[in-house]
Design brief:
Homodimer. Its EC number is 2.6.1.9. With 349 residues, the protein is an alpha/beta fold. Helix content is 38%, strand content 16%. β9 and β10 form a beta hairpin. The N and C termini lie far apart (49 Å). The protein binds 4'-deoxy-4'-aminopyridoxal-5'-phosphate.
């Protein structure tokens, strides 16, 4: 296509899976605990809100609930169409053509995709052999390259590892760029930077309702940062970016937020089960602080073999060829996954 802008000529479409599956462990979605009551009650459209009006541009009621959830002021929040929109908004607001965006790699692909779309230069800093992030190397690179933005995915997708708070603070204190900490999976770990937003002018924290809160279908994510950052990003945000139904369900769900803690504990226990089982099978699995496990396996076509059994996981390509990521499912799903893996190994012998 001749007319397309240069920066996206080589961009690949974000393809999702339409394969028929019985057990879906590919996208780290959570259980629908907070939706159960809403399903029962139903939504009374004319009474709850009128869809002929635009939604609240400021998502006031939703921000009130996020305030209670995170203990941050509403003036420090922007909500939108998934944390993916938040990633895009940060780049759109702060990064000019050709400027540098830095991130440890491997990590969530959308940082580099949005960098490319906005003609920024994405530079990935390779993590250690065990996928741990070397913060001193990152600081050194930041001093050398002077990035506008540094993305830190914590816990990291897809590796599951966690950077401790002191390391992130060290980075914040030793860079001129904005540090965006993507905490999509932080409910499954400890060490959120949310309570540091008033201490650092260059800190943005991203969160989502798609994972631990089990609401991926409503596409609701948000960021929190000091007010100067929020004010400038608000100038760039599209009007009415968060639809009325998602705002409504987000509010209802967050009012019941206490119900997720038991689920989070269950995920942590199941994560240990998977980690232990995989390692006992001599599969190299990485310790995870999220709701998934990253592992390496050299059996050919593992992904396809699992699909034959109706199990969908995530596979990687290029430099991560041979690596896989499996979401932590419920007890039955995890047991079935392990059982099938054992069968596949047996059949390979
Ligand atoms: N950040 C990370 C690290 C993710 O893994 C994901 C989803 N895979 C997102 C952001 C985007 O989440 P959402 O747009 O659903 O909020």
């Amino acid at each position: 296509m001749e007319l397309v802008k240069e920066s996206i000529k080589n961009l690949k479409e974000y393809k999702t899976n339409k394969i028929d599956f019985k057990i879906k462990l590919d996208a780290n979605e959570g259980k629908n605990i907070l939706l159960q009551d809403i399903y029962k009650e139903g939504i009374k459209f004319n009474e709850d809100f009128n869809l002929n009006f635009y939604p609240d541009n400021d998502a006031y009621l939703l921000k009130q609930e996020i305030k209670k959830y995170l203990n941050v002021d509403t003036s420090n929040i922007i909500a939108g169409n998934g944390s993916s929109e938040m990633i895009e908004l940060v780049i759109k607001t702060f990064v000019d053509k050709g400027e540098i965006i830095l991130s440890p790699i491997p990590t969530f692909s959308m940082y580099s995709v949005f960098s490319q779309i906005y003609s920024a230069q994405f530079i990935g800093i390779q993590s250690n052999e065990d996928f741990k992030v070397d913060i001193d190397k990152l600081i050194e690179k930041s001093n050398e390259l002077n990035p506008k933005v540094i993305f830190i995915c914590n816990p990291n997708n897809p590796t599951g590892n966690l950077i401790n708070k002191n390391d992130i603070k060290k980075l914040l204190e030793n860079t001129n760029g904005l540090v965006v900490v993507d905490e999509a999976y932080m409910e499954f770990a400890e060490g959120s930077m949310v309570d540091e937003i008033s201490n650092y002018e260059n800190l943005i924290v991203l969160r989502t309702l798609s994972k631990a809160l089990g609401l991926a279908g409503i596409r609701l994510g948000y960021m929190t940062a000091n007010q100067k950052i929020i004010d400038v990003i608000n100038k760039v945000k599209s009007p009415y970016n968060l639809n009325a139904i998602s705002q409504y369900i987000g509010v209802k769900a967050l009012k019941n937020k206490d119900k997720i803690f038991e689920y989070i504990e269950e995920v942590k226990n199941e994560r240990e089960f998977l980690y232990k089982e995989l390692n006992e099978m001599k599969i190299k699995a990485y310790k995870s602080y999220a709701n998934f496990i990253f592992f390496k396996w050299d059996i050919n076509n593992l992904y396809e073999k699992l699909i034959d059994y109706g199990i969908l996981i995530r596979k990687f390509s290029d430099e991560l060829e041979g690596y896989y990521r499996v979401s932590v499912g419920n007890k039955n799903e995890n047991e079935r996954f392990i059982k099938i893996l054992k069968e596949i190994i047996e059949n390979e012998k």
